[in-house]
Amino acid sequence: MNLILASKIFWAIGVIGWYAIRFPFERRVKRERVVDARDRLRERILLFCSTMGLGIIPGIWVFTGFPRSADYPFTVAQLVLGALVFGFSLWLFRRTHKDLGKNWSVTLEIKDKHKLITGGVYRYVRHPMYSAFFLWALAQLILIPNWIAGPAGFIGFGILFAFRVGREEGMMLDTFGDEYRAYSARTARIVPGVF
Ligand code: SAH
């Protein structure tokens, strides 16, 4: 089979797999009462950037080949490595959803019965779900041999991360105080022991 077609299929399976993991949680959290929501408009704009980079721009390349002039050569090694990284990202994504449960939200929110999660994959980093998204962006970079559609995920999600993570930690500090301060002191943000 054509290598490029295989990479497009892997990308599509990854995106569908991601949504299949997320969908049941979206339904579950709808029933939770929100007691604090921050910067809703700003958060929507950040989500738009992330969706463009991880979904729309690579999606256009996958379905139309645009922008063809930015294509570069592709090998089996890229296909295999990209698929492995995507698989790892989905595994981590599923773990983070299981661990966060009803405390999860798409934008910055605190629930009525919000609990601070520090176990499971949250033992190693404070933002494992964002680690999973960065792994997805890395998989996209490896799987899509195009100078624009490949790195778009890193740029789109990178913008969301950069403009959100400090405010998210501020909100968690306001809600959980010393408990979150102690948790932050013993964990890195997205790469265990590094950052
Ligand atoms: N930044 C985390 C969570 C992403 S979901 C991660 O990357 O895994 C975003 C929501 O999760 C925020 O609105 C916040 O209310 C909640 N949250 C973040 N860290 C949390 C934690 N350790 N325990 C419970 N809820 C958390």
Question: Your description of this structure?
Answer:
- With 195 residues, this protein is mostly helical.
- It has a single domain, classed as Four Helix Bundle (Hemerythrin (Met), subunit A) (Up-down Bundle), CATH 1.20.120.
- The protein is built from 6 helices and 2 strands; from the N terminus they run αβααβααα.
- A two-stranded antiparallel ribbon has the order 1-2.
- Helix 1 (3-29) packs antiparallel against helix 2.
- The chain is elongated and about 55 Å long.
- The chain starts with a helix and ends in a 10-residue tail after the last helix.
- The model has no long low-confidence stretch (mean pLDDT 97).
- The chain binds S-adenosyl-L-homocysteine.
- S-adenosyl-L-homocysteine binds at residues 96, 100, 103-105, 108-110, 116-117, 122, 127-130, 168, 172.
Brief account:
The chain is mainly α and 195 residues long.
Total number of helical segments? 6
Give the strand content: under 5%
What are the low-pLDDT stretches, counting only 5+ consecutive residues below 50? Answer: none
Radius of gyration: 18 Å
Number of strands: 2
Tally of separate domains = 1
Oligomer: single chain
Q: Which class do the helix and strand fractions yield? A: mainly alpha
What does the main sheet amount to? 2 strands, antiparallel
N-to-C series of helices and strands = HEHHEHHH
Large-scale geometry:
elongated
Q: Order of strands in the sheet with the most strands?
A: 1-2
Mean pLDDT score? 97
Distance between the termini: 40 Å
What share of residues is helical?
A: 55-70%
CATH class: Mainly Alpha
Q: What is the CATH architecture descriptor?
A: Up-down Bundle
The CATH topology is given as Four Helix Bundle (Hemerythrin (Met), subunit A)
